[in-house]
Amino acid sequence: MIVAGVDEAGRGPLAGPVCAAAVILGDGFDATGIADSKQLTAARRDVLALRIRERARAWAVAWASVEEIDSLNILQATFLAMQRAVDALRVPPAEVWVDGNRAPPWPHMTRCIVGGDACEPAISAASILAKTARDAVMRQLAEAHPGYGFERHAGYPVPAHLEALQRLGPCAAHRRSFGPVARLLQR
């Protein structure tokens, strides 16, 4: 059975798009070292992402923009990115395994697996591709919007980011519908 693993990166940040990846590892894929992206160093994620892109049977990375996040809400925007990733696979999956307890309302046979990024190699691979792709975009946003530290915290609401947000105000990369940003904009 052809199974696609799906995971996302970037639901919690105050800035940047949300990313989803879908991966079909295929028979014979060596999953040694493939793990939940949060458990790996950035350097190890980069090495594994390259291996996944080179050797997986199929993979795709897709996005939902800041504007889509603000207009739909983060859950629906995440589902949209997941749908786009699965639709972009060059091999149609027989079943889709999604990390977490909810999946998009799509026509695919689906299995939701809480903690799937830590126990299912296809979902782990998707988590690695989503995380490395989103981190790369956040480094680009750091260059376009200096002073926020996106290259260090990827837009998450850490103290340094919240301080920069207070000092500089929101930029075009910030999600206007998220509490700390919305409160600043209301002032």
Polypeptide structure, described:
The chain is globular, with a radius of gyration of 17 Å. Helix 1 packs across helix 5 (121-144) and helix 2 packs across helix 3 (74-88). The protein has 8 helices and 5 strands. With 187 residues, the protein is α/β, with parallel strands linked by helices. Strands 3-2-1-4-5 form a 5-stranded mixed β-sheet, with helices on both faces.
Count of discrete alpha- or pi-helical segments spanning 4 or more residues: 8
Q: How many β-strand stretches?
A: 5
CATH superfamily: Ribonuclease H-like superfamily/Ribonuclease H
State Rg: 17 Å
Order of helices and strands: EEHEHHEEHHHHH
Q: Report the biggest beta sheet as strand number plus sense, adding barrel if it closes.
A: 5 strands, mixed
Query: What is the annotated CATH architecture?
Result: 2-Layer Sandwich
CATH T-level fold name: Nucleotidyltransferase, domain 5
**What number is the mean pLDDT?**
97
Short note summarizing the structure:
This protein is α/β, with parallel strands linked by helices and 187 residues long. It is 46% helix and 17% strand. The chain has helices spanning 42-55, 66-72, 74-88, 116-119, 121-144, 150-153, 159-168, 179-186; strands spanning 3-9, 18-24, 58-64, 95-99, 109-113.
Topology, please?
Elements: E1 3-9, E2 18-24, H1 42-55, E3 58-64, H2 66-72, H3 74-88, E4 95-99, E5 109-113, H4 116-119, H5 121-144, H6 150-153, H7 159-168, H8 179-186
Helix pairs in contact: 1-5, 2-3
Search tags:
187 residues; globular; 8 helices; alpha/beta; 46% helix; Nucleotidyltransferase, domain 5; single chain; five-stranded mixed β-sheet
